[in-house]
Amino acid sequence: MLNKYPLWKNLMVILVIAIGALYALPNLYGEDPAIQVSATRSGEVTTSTLEQVERALNAGGLAPRGITLENDQILVRLNSDDEQLRAQDILTSELGRNYIVALNLAPAQPAWLASIGGEPLKLGLDLRGGVHFLMEVNMDEAIDTIREQMATEVRSQLREEGVRYRSVEEDGSDILVTLRNSDDLQAANSALRNTYEGYRTSTSADTNQLRLSMTDQHLQETQANAISQNITILRNRVDELGVAEPLIQRQGQDRIVVELPGVQDTARAKEILGATATLEFRFVDTENDLRDAQQGRVPFGSRLYDRRGGGQVLLENRVILTGDHIVNANAGFDENNRPQVSISLDSAGGSMMSLATRDRIGDPMATVFIEFIATGEQTEDGSVEFERVEEVVSEATIQARLGSSFRITGVGGMQEAQNLALLLRAGALIAPIQIVEERTVGPSLGAENVRSGMTAILAGFVLILIFMAIYYRKFGLIANMALATNLIMIVGVMSMIPGATLTMPGMAGILLTVGMAVDANVLIFERIREELKDGRSPQQAISRGYDNALSSIADANITTLIAAFILFAVGTGSIKGFAITLGIGIATSMFTAIIGTRMIVNLAWGRNKRLKKLSI
Membrane-crossing residues (predicted)? Predict the structure, then answer.
């Protein structure tokens, strides 16, 4: 027959719409006010922690809707926002500094929906509320750190080559090496020239000095690496807050934007994000007595450190290596099935480690984790004040001369090994970061934005429904069905896409899609009317109307889709949100307006061979 889909095609259309509706369904259940409890590096979430949380809430007169322990985190669902705030105060006081107690919103969809991946659509900061931070990387500190490390590497390189020198000093942004005589100057120039990528050398025969200067290109690369490294670390720290869809991106030369939708605990967010961490490898001082040091008699050249998990250890002041030379770190098991951490260094770090451990085989080496935690206070010049916290996270005996790849053993259990690997991979910041701007969007303002956006969408939707029903009659009702299905499918598809977030510009994209979706049906219906006026039978008019309008519909939508792709590729933040909803809306509208309405028209009129008139 002229207007008839095969059974498989009808079933395919129904299946696609059903899947879209199924994954849009979780958005009807809303979210519960919740508290998320996770452990800091010195804590651990266990079943006993869960029992402690339950007892504390019961003692505080709170009856939560549910408490679960999953993925090393406790999620407490409350009945209202007031209970959420009370629960946070109770648990913060009860659990102490070893745990992070964060406000959150937990999806309330049934378990069977969650089991198939059905999650509600993630809302952006402007719709859900949350906190916005603009953070600045201290580039001067980054360059100073690089220069200090460079001076240490130059000293090690000259000693390795047997070149005698008077001094290796930092001179502004350069490294100035003073040699004993002209022969040593030539030897040093031969050893250092073209050795360090991104540096150029120059010599002065009159003063027997060699200068290493950082090139402009290397300076820009160093600044870019500092930003990239800090972004990676901030992402790991945001995971501790349990934020569903954070936005972390670079802004300008030395700033990072962090947006945390759903987070209302600004102080906790600042505490986690504002911390600056680094790593150092040092030798354990085995020649002096630890007990004497603990009684205040610390030997010259050594220092007493606290050990994570309790106790103290005496370390030499000499730093073997810092964490920014670490390329990769992975947790695993050694040949005796004991947890270990395998570490890979860059070429410079491998040389430094090899030189330092050459004569220290059999000696223990410690990994020191250093964290700069924002105190919340400011110095006299207005900058953020940091508290330096240092602790030894592992000690291991050097079994052989180490190089670019080695392993650390004696790290406790597998969980400790995995945590240490994470710290080694992304725990070392090149430079401190400071919060220079802070904004909080309250949940009530976010809810008002949602209501305003929904009002605009529904108003446009209803007006289009009325117009289509009056102007195109029964065909208009079919177009309205397709339009409603299109909205459901947009929500369903966005709910299925990991990382997709709905913002106010995204809602504007949906509203634009509502208008564009009926354009396809308007073209089809007007083409059917023209065919009827030319004397075609109703069945021929339907067939030719859909076929002839297809090229015009495809051209219009493809050009708009290209624009959406460009917006997504070059845009940031809210522009990406608009582009995502626009692109998804175009794809779903073409499906519902062309294939979906054709199926309904075929079922309604396609089987009637004696059809004489169409309600269009």
Answer: 453-472, 479-500, 506-528, 549-571, 577-605
What's the CA angle centered on 101, arms 97 and 107, to 5 degrees? 160
* pLDDT number for residue 431: 66
**156: nearest Cα among 396, 402, 349:** 349
* Each residue's pLDDT tens digit, 452-463: 878 888 888 888
* In a shared domain, residues 354 and 413: yes
Sign of torsion, CA 214 218 222 223?
Answer: positive
Q: What is the CATH number of the domain that holds 281?
A: 3.30.1360.200
Rounded CA-CA distance 569/411 in Å is 44
* Structural domain total, the chain: 4
Domain membership flag for residue 231: no
d(CA 42, CA 306): 12
Percent of the chain with pLDDT over 90: 9
The boundaries of the domain holding residue 159 are: 140-217
Length of the chain: 616
Give the containing element (helix H, strand E) for 213. Answer: strand 209-214
Measured CA to CA, the distance from residue 207 to residue 222 in angstroms comes to: 31
> Per-residue pLDDT tens for 510-535?
888 877 788 888 889 999 999 888 88
The contacts of residue 582 (CB under 8 Å, 6+ apart) are 509, 512, 513, 560, 564, 567
Statement: residue 498 has pLDDT above 80: no
Phi, psi of 362 (to 5 degrees): 95, -10
Does 430 share its domain with 483? no
DSSP characters over 496-547: HSTT-EE-HHHHHHHHHHHHHHHHHHHHHHHHHHHHHHTT--HHHHHHHHHH
Residue 323 shares a structural domain with residue 291: yes
